Fold this protein.
Amino acid sequence: MIDQKFWSGKRVFLTGHTGFKGSWLSLWLNHLGSSVRGYALDPPTSPSLFDAAKISKLIDSKIGDIRDQDFLHDSMVNFNPDIVIHMAAQPLVRISYDEPIETYEVNVMGTAKVLEVARNCPNLKAIINITTDKCYENVGFDKSYIETDPMGGFDPYSSSKGCAELVTASYRRSFFNDLGIGVASVRAGNVIGGGDWASDRLIPDILRSFDLKQAVIVRNPNSTRPWQHVLEPLSGYLLLAQRLYNNKLYSEGWNFGPDEKDVKPVHWILDKMIAYWPNACWELDKNSNPHEANFLKLNISKARSKLDWRPIWELDRALERIINWHKAWKNNEDIQLLCLAEIKEYMKDMNK
């Protein structure tokens, strides 16, 4: 399903390449033979997958802020990409409560500047803008959100991503349709995988507590989320870019989430991971915490029917892989080779 002949030699401008998802996608694109220029701030964590997998040796890495329109313009236009994939963001709900203005500046105006600069790239055929499942107006119902549901968001992060969706739709209609450039936005679930060290994310918090032999402190054990291995949505982005490059009818919003059975509460994830780790446990956080949606689920029927995309790795398998990946990292194994082996196995499973 992932066409290596399509990607071989394609020039891909990837923002946010130093982050968790961006690092995995950089590895995958390099494996497919693409010429990649990454544009992002320094890695947001230490350690980071970007450093551990030595990604700067594989792609052309530019360190810059998407709000710096002049440097962004020089970096993107001089590279003259065929495809732009925009991942750079302030990605955390909790930080958005502490830094709301920065969150809006990065996620809304940063997106606008990426799209504005992209108008000047003569060879550009497709733009993929990564937002989030939290871009929808969450009314608290037990329902799966479809691509045509209203944008919204309670917290500044979710709201900023809803705004980014509106900016993307406006640029598509106002400019890119006339230029013949396809523009799609993509919304993934709660992405998990090896190499994520972000704060205030469940899996990294669990692994840090395991390493320190401390109880995992949990805010909302009953919150339900669409958990998925990082390679799942990335495969959707790659498939969509292939279609979008040659057919502008794919210029829409798209959901990439797990199967219904893998939409699980936080306490289910905790119990599964604890089973792999001797003497681990978790405790409820008794402090007051900012609002977070209790239930979130994506409807993926559109991606199934129109892209022939489907989830490949079940949640049990994804969690086992994360534990094994983390142990391999602690044992100083070659992380680049480890990630590439996972990518190759995933691509093999896609074709079964």
About this structure: The first helix runs from residue 4 to 7. The chain has a mean pLDDT of 93.
